[in-house]
Write a structure and sequence with these properties.
heterodimer, A: 477 residues, B: 461 residues, mainly alpha, 19 helices
């Protein structure tokens, strides 16, 4: 029942939220819903017996599709990430002003519904449904509350991902007719033994959809614009959780079905990912806008994850699992800082900022921890994930590892550069009257920093949580 | 047979009720009651509770599929009359005649869903088309409406000629009007059709392609749909078009074998052309009404898949597609008729002035684009699944999906105008009942998007 609750709770509260007119009521309602979902998620993952974690009911018997859901380690981890992120996002942006706040929170909660559904669905058609359901509310969120160029940018994002989804639909259809029992169940797809030349073709139908979502080079062009133009609360969802849909889908819905094709194309995808890492890191250095910098930095991090996925190494996969969670936490932290600055000072440009540490010392300290996590310094959560991933990559090919390693150095360059330009140096006209962050942002950031350090010192719980998925994925090799 | 007889009778009743009452809205209610009667009698026919029997000597044969299609088409017409009935009253002065003509169209539709011989096909098509020529020209003081009616009539008559020629060839080749499968050579198992047979079928194909506005026989569609009073375009583009497809499928499911492998090649070319012309041209339109005309060509491209892969999924699919497409299009046209300005800019800011209209229109547009959770998704899904099931043509599916992505572009332009652009879209006065009806239709679209089996169960039980 837990997966059904995780979907129904945000869905119903979201629909109710459309009818809330009063601003504080809408914010309170959204937060309440997100906290409730978090409670259910924690209870489900840690306290309820495993039998409660799956659900199966008839949906479309004539098509062979069932309303089937289950949660393995990876899906527990991502459900936790989703459930933790939403209350934090709502707390951190509590003071932001929106027109039609009821609709804003309603669409955010509907996005959460879609995300939860993607992570728990165990039936390909159901998975496709939630995959799209996560997209539609985001389209409206970005187009209604975004920046100046929002309409064109969001539309590009939508078309990109929609084309990907349609290709995946063709792939799902193809696989469906190959199954022995004409079913969309994950297990039936898994049992299909596709001839290798067919794998080589169907693989791409799925992979392009996931590659656009992640995004990896050269499918990434929608991403920096979309991150920049979206309202920051939505950007946090996009980069913290939604990109994980792509990685999650590769692990659950791609690698197990097409082992031959995955091996065959691994080197090309790894190469593309590494090119993307370097390319994004180099562009990040040249940025003058905090949001765009974080967007490019995110492409680089995702590139490392997707490269590692295709090395077929066990340690690497463990690293990806940990990093999916940690990247979510870290990037949301960075967005919160960016939003705090923008809300207060009205600009995101480095050239107009400086010396903020004197005015806002606690923001500076919290940002520095987040920045360290972004460059994966030891004792921060990202260190262990990146270490394991590089370990996996190293066993695959030492040269690729060396090139990918450059991006770590570049990450340090652009991240520290940002810290320096925004927080140190002389104050400017814009920052001279700045004040420190308010209580709600402080609360959200402190929680994130505690998570960053706790998981950096003791990552074992995350490794244990996702052990079964790693084992199952590796067993198929 | 119930549907054919009753719909013809109701047409006559509607004509005379125009003499008996001068109150226009009474006519709407008479038509609605007539449609409910029609549905009831057709259901009785389906389950053999009560039926008229006339010996048609094999020219008509009623099966579950055709009868069920009738029920769905009558139900869609009922929804159409509920949503746009008051706009039919405003279309011109001869309101009773308009309703009568709609019933005559339904009579032609019931013949087309049950024909088993070429003569009945011809009769059905003509009974269906002639009232449409009149409805197109019903706004007789409007030059565009006149032009559209004349164009439609001339082109339609020309196509009728081609169809008759095809039927004549067919008769010459087989010596019969009935749709029997062509003879198979026992030794090889191959069909050996004569030149006349193939030529006749090709001429029939052209005529039918014209009726469902498949490219390259689609040229009349944009002008006619644009010129006709919107309220009749809505009817023409949905229920009538679906009837054309049902007839198309009935005709070729037994005869396609005579054309051999060429059949699939011709059809693939027509499908791709239709998808391409419909979708690409729709992108460049400035008027929502004209965009919907091209979108209806594009949607016809998807419906042609039912012809391509004549398996059970295709049959279920065409039913679902007809319903999904009709509901969404009738809904959009119902809103469009209320708008003062038919251009995309005319929709600017509709979400502020009329949130209900904007929301329901969004649902309809998402359904036309085939986004999950709306009926349109499963409609497209069934069509594509039927092609994949046939095997070997997955490239065609990918082409279709590409054009489905293109279609998002022009459907979403309306959504963008309504929600994201500033403006004050003005409309005719909107009644509460109209809003309620729109919400019900949008609710149906979403319900079918989650449980398409509601429609399909009726087909099997």
């Amino acid at each position: 029942m837990i997966p059904v609750l995780l979907i129904l709770l945000p869905l119903l509260t979201g629909i109710i939220s459309f009818f809330i007119k009063e601003e504080n009521a809408a914010k309170g309602w959204g937060l309440l819903s997100a906290v409730l979902t978090l409670t259910v998620a924690i209870a489900g993952v840690y306290f309820y017996p495993a039998a409660q974690l799956s659900f199966d009911s008839a949906w479309l018997p004539s098509l062979g599709s069932r309303f089937a859901m289950s949660m393995d380690g990876m899906s527990k981890m991502l459900v936790l990430l989703t459930a933790i992120s939403f209350p934090l996002i709502f707390i951190a942006t509590y003071k932001n002003q929106y027109k039609n706040p009821g609709s804003f929170y309603a669409l955010m909660l509907l996005t959460q519904t879609g995300l939860m559904g993607v992570f728990v669905a165990n039936d390909a058609l159901l998975f496709y449904f939630f995959w799209e359901l996560a997209l539609i509310p985001v389209y409206f969120l970005c187009s209604l509350w975004g920046g100046e160029k929002r309409i064109a940018v969001t539309f590009k994002f939508f078309i990109y991902t929609f084309i990907g989804s349609l290709m995946m639909l063709a792939g799902i259809l193809y696989m469906y007719f190959q199954t022995a029992d004409h079913s969309f169940a994950w297990q039936s797809f898994y049992n299909v033994q596709l001839a290798s030349e067919k794998q080589l073709f169907v693989f791409w139908l799925f992979f392009v959809a996931f590659a656009i979502k992640m995004p990896i080079f050269p499918f990434h062009t929608w991403q920096p614009d979309a991150y920049e133009q979206s309202p920051t609360a939505t950007t946090m969802v996009l980069s913290g959780i939604m990109v994980k849909m792509g990685i999650f889908a590769v692990i659950k819905w791609l690698l197990p079905f097409f082992p031959t094709a995955s091996d065959q194309f691994a080197q090309w995808i790894i190469l593309l990912s590494v090119i993307g890492m370097l390319y994004a890191s180099l562009i990040a250095i040249r940025q003058d806008d905090i949001k765009r910098l974080i967007a490019y930095s995110s492409i680089a991090h995702i590139g490392l994850m997707s490269a590692t996925l295709f090395t077929g190494s066990r340690v690497g996969l463990e690293g990806v699992m940990i990093q999916m969670f940690n990247h979510g936490i870290n990037v949301i932290g960075l967005w919160i800082v960016a939003d705090a600055i923008e809300q207060q000072l009205g600009t995101r440009k480095f050239s107009e900022l400086g010396g903020l540490a004197q005015k806002a010392p606690s923001l500076a300290i919290l940002l520095v921890v987040m920045a360290f996590a972004n460059i994966a310094l030891p004792l921060t959560n990202a260190f262990i994930g990146e270490f394991l991933m590089f370990n996996g990559l190293f066993h695959y090919n030492i040269w690729i590892t060396a090139v990918a390693g450059i991006s770590i150095i570049l990450a340090a360059v652009y991240t520290l550069n940002m810290v320096q330009k925004v927080f140190y140096g002389n104050t400017t006209d814009v920052t001279s009257n700045a004040i420190d962050i308010s209580g709600n942002i402080r609360l959200a950031l402190v929680i994130l920093v505690v998570l960053v350090i706790a998981l950096g010192v003791y990552p074992q719980p995350m490794i244990d949580l996702t052990k079964d998925t790693v084992g199952a994925t590796m067993a198929g090799k | 047979m119930n549907a054919i007889i009753l719909s013809a009778l109701l047409g006559v009743v509607m004509m005379f009720s125009g003499i008996l009452t001068k109150n226009k809205s009474v006519l709407k209610y008479i038509a609605a009651v007539g449609l409910l009667l029609l549905i009831a009698f057709n259901v009785m026919d389906t389950y053999a509770i009560f039926k008229f029997e006339i010996n048609s000597r094999g020219l008509l044969s009623f099966e579950k599929f055709g009868l069920y299609f009738n029920t769905l088409a009558f139900a869609a017409t009922f929804i159409y009359v509920l949503l746009s009935g008051s706009d039919i009253e405003r279309a011109g002065i001869n309101v009773a005649e308009y309703f009568a003509l709609i019933f005559f169209v339904l009579c032609g539709l019931s013949i087309l869903s049950g024909f088993n011989g070429m003569l009945m096909l011809f009769l059905g098509i003509e009974i269906l088309s002639i009232p449409l020529y009149i409805l197109t020209g019903s706004d007789k003081r409007n030059l565009k409406s006149n032009e559209a009616a004349l164009k439609y009539f001339l082109m339609g008559s020309f196509t009728t000629g081609i169809m008759l020629m095809g039927i004549a060839f067919f008769y010459g080749a087989t010596g019969s009007f009935t749709l029997n499968a062509p003879p198979v050579i026992p030794t090889t198992g191959m069909v050996n059709p004569s030149f006349l047979h193939v030529g006749g079928l090709l001429l029939l194909f052209v005529a039918m392609a014209f009726k469902v506005s498949a490219a390259p026989f689609h040229f009349w569609t944009p002008d006619v749909y644009d010129g006709a009073p919107s309220v009749f375009t809505s009817f023409m583009a949905t229920i009538v078009k679906a009837a054309g497809f049902v007839a198309f499928i009935r005709l070729f499911q037994s005869q396609a074998i005579a054309l051999g492998p060429t059949w699939k090649i011709i059809l693939s070319i027509v499908i791709i052309l239709t998808l391409m012309i419909g979708n690409i041209t729709a992108v460049f339109q400035q008027s929502v009404k004209r965009m919907l005309a091209y979108s209806s060509i594009a949607q016809a491209g998807f419906m042609l898949f039912a012809l391509f892969s004549s398996n059970d999924l295709a049959k279920e699919g065409i039913l679902l597609y007809s319903v999904a497409y009709s509901l969404a299009t009738i809904g959009i046209f119902a809103v469009l008729i209320k708008m003062d300005d038919y251009t995309f800019d005319g929709f600017n800011g509709l979400s502020k002035s009329h949130p209900v209209l904007a929301f329901t229109t969004t649902v309809f547009l998402l359904s036309l684009a085939g986004i999950p959770l709306t009926a349109g998704f499963f409609a497209k899904y069934y069509m594509l699944a039927s092609v994949v099931k046939e095997g070997g043509s997955i490239w065609l599916v990918i082409v279709a999906l590409f054009f489905a992505a293109v279609s998002v572009y022009y459907y979403f332009r309306v959504i963008q105008a309504m929600y994201f652009k500033e403006g004050d879209a003005t409309t005719a006065p909107i009644s509460g009942a109209f809003k309620l009806a729109l919400i019900v239709v949008a609710g149906l679209v979403i319900l079918l998007g989650i449980f398409p089996s509601i429609i399909l169960n009726g087909f099997y039980f």
